[in-house]
Design brief:
430 residues, 44% helix, 17 helices, 8-stranded mixed beta sheet, single chain, alpha/beta
C-alpha cells in the first residue's frame, strides 16, 4: 500500500487561494513562537470541504501553528487542497478512486479508514510526534498506537458514536447500541484527554465519569457585509423589498429537523404576512425532498431553498436575516453554525436540545420545543417585537466578542496541548 502523499505548497496554490478561518493577524503569531514539536492530526474526512468538522479541523491546525507547533494533517485522499501555515497535508491511498464521501457513516468511510489506519501506524514508526489529535473514529486506532509508541492522544469527540450510528438499521437495535456505548466508554477512558463539541461534555462524563473532558468553543468572526451586497442577494433570491426574512444555514440532513420548520412557515406567514424563509446548505436530493413538502404545504413564495454555499458566502446570508433559526430533532453536539449565528449579532430561535442550551442563554436566543407550533410562536414573537429582537442581537454580539474571538480559541488550543503533554501517563517507547 502506498505511503501517505504530502501536498506541496505549489500544489495548494494551484487548487485555489487560501483564506484562513482565523484572522491573518492571529496567524502571524506563529512566526514569533519557538518550536514546540510536531503534532499529528488524524482526520477521517474529505479535507478540505466547507462543512463542520473540516472547518473546525482547519481552525485547530491554524491555532496550533500560532502557538508554535508544526503539524502533519493525515486525511482522506478526497477534498480540496489548501495551504495552511505550518502544516503538511498527508493524503492516504485511494484504491477505489473515490471522489466524494458523504456526511456521516458510509461504506466509503469504512473503506477509507483502513488505509488511514495503516498510514497512521507508518507515521508513528517513522517520525517523532509530540501528540496526536485524533478526530471521531480515528481515535480508536490512535489510542492503541499512541500507547505503543509513547505518544499522548487527544480525542476530538465531534459527535456521539451511538447517536451517529442509530440512523442506520444495523446499528439501531438495543444490542448494537449497547456495544457502541461500551466502545465509546472505552475510548473516553483510554484517551489521555478528550475535547468534546459543545453540548457533549455532560453526556461524555455520564458515560465515563473518570475521563478528562473539556469542551470546544470555536472562533467565529463575521466580516461586515455592505448593504448593497445584502440588497443584491435579496434581489437574486426574488425577495420583495421590506419582506421579513428568517434564515437557516447548515446541512439538510434528517437530524436537523427541517420538516418541523417547514410546517411552522404557514403559521408564521399568517401572523407576519410576507415573511420569507431562506434555507441554505442543501444538496440536490435534500432540496428535492423539502420542495415536495413545501408544495404539499402550499408555501408558494414563502420559501427559498439554496444549495450549499462556500463558507465565505455565509456572511451575506446571515446579514440578510431578521431572525436566524437553528432546528435540531436529535443529536447532542452543537452545530458550528451556532457560533457563526452569535458572531453575526442577530436574534436567534433554536430547538430546545442540549447542544443549543450549552451555548445559547436566554439573553441571546429563544430556545423552544422542536414542534411547528412552538417554533412558529417564537419566530413570530421575535419578528413582531423589535425591542426583544434588539435585546437578543445585543446579547449575541456581547457573547461573541467575549468568547468567540481568535485569541480565546488560540489560548484554548494551546492550553489543551499543554495539559495533554503534562498529564499524559508514562508509556513504553519504541
Amino acid at each position: 500500500m502506498a505511503p501517505p502523499r504530502p501536498v506541496s505548497s505549489a500544489e495548494d496554490a494551484t487548487h485555489g487561494s487560501w483564506s484562513g478561518t482565523l484572522h491573518p493577524d492571529a496567524l502571524s503569531l506563529g512566526n514569533e513562537r519557538s518550536d514546540r514539536g510536531r503534532v499529528l492530526i488524524v482526520a477521517p474526512q474529505p479535507f478540505y470541504e466547507d462543512r463542520g468538522t473540516c472547518i473546525t479541523t482547519r481552525q485547530v491546525a491554524e491555532a496550533l501553528a500560532c502557538v508554535g507547533y508544526r503539524i502533519d494533517l493525515l486525511t482522506y485522499p478526497v477534498g480540496r487542497s489548501i495551504e495552511l501555515p505550518g502544516t503538511r497535508i498527508l493524503r492516504t491511498a485511494n484504491p477505489f478512486a473515490f471522489h466524494t464521501v458523504p456526511i456521516g457513516f458510509s461504506i466509503r468511510k469504512l473503506v477509507l479508514d483502513l488505509p488511514l489506519t495503516y498510514a497512521l501506524a507508518a507515521r508513528l514508526r517513522e517520525a517523532p510526534y509530540t501528540a496526536i489529535h485524533a478526530i471521531e473514529e480515528a481515535a480508536f486506532p490512535a489510542v492503541l498506537l499512541g500507547r505503543r509508541y509513547g505518544v499522548p492522544v487527544l480525542y476530538d469527540m465531534q459527535s456521539s458514536l451511538p447517536d451517529q450510528m442509530r440512523t442506520h438499521r444495523l446499528f439501531r437495535t438495543a444490542l448494537a447500541q449497547r456495544l457502541l456505548r461500551r466502545c465509546e466508554r472505552w475510548l473516553l477512558e483510554e484517551a489521555d484527554l478528550v475535547i468534546a463539541s459543545a453540548g457533549l461534555a455532560a453526556r461524555a462524563l455520564r458515560a465515563a465519569p473518570g475521563a478528562r473532558i473539556r469542551e470546544w468553543r470555536f472562533a467565529s468572526q463575521q466580516p461586515p457585509v455592505p448593504p448593497e451586497a445584502v440588497d443584491a442577494l435579496r434581489r437574486s433570491l426574488g425577495i420583495p423589498a421590506g419582506a421579513r426574512i428568517v434564515v437557516y444555514s447548515g446541512t439538510f440532513e434528517p437530524y436537523q429537523g427541517l420538516g418541523e420548520l417547514l410546517s411552522a412557515i404557514p403559521l408564521v406567514a399568517r401572523d407576519v404576512p410576507g415573511t420569507v424563509f431562506v434555507l441554505v446548505g442543501g444538496n440536490g436530493a435534500h432540496i428535492e425532498a423539502l420542495s415536495h413538502q413545501a408544495a404539499r404545504l402550499g408555501l408558494n413564495g414563502s420559501l427559498r431553498l439554496v444549495q450549499r454555499q462556500p463558507r465565505e458566502a455565509a456572511a451575506r446570508f446571515l446579514a440578510l436575516a431578521d431572525v436566524l433559526v437553528s432546528t435540531r430533532s436529535y443529536g447532542e453536539n452543537a452545530p458550528l453554525k451556532i457560533f457563526d449565528y452569535l458572531a453575526a449579532g442577530k436574534p436567534i430561535v433554536a430547538s430546545n436540545v442540549a447542544c443549543h442550551r450549552s451555548v445559547l442563554g436566554e439573553d441571546r436566543a429563544i430556545v423552544v420545543a422542536h414542534t411547528p407550533g412552538d417554533l412558529a410562536r417564537a419566530l413570530t414573537l421575535t419578528l413582531q417585537d423589535s425591542r426583544l429582537a434588539a435585546r437578543l442581537s445585543a446579547g449575541a454580539q456581547r457573547y461573541a466578542e467575549a468568547h468567540l474571538h481568535d485569541g480565546a480559541f488560540i489560548q484554548l488550543v494551546g492550553g489543551l496541548f499543554d495539559e495533554l503533554r503534562a498529564a499524559a501517563p508514562p508509556r513504553v517507547g519504541r
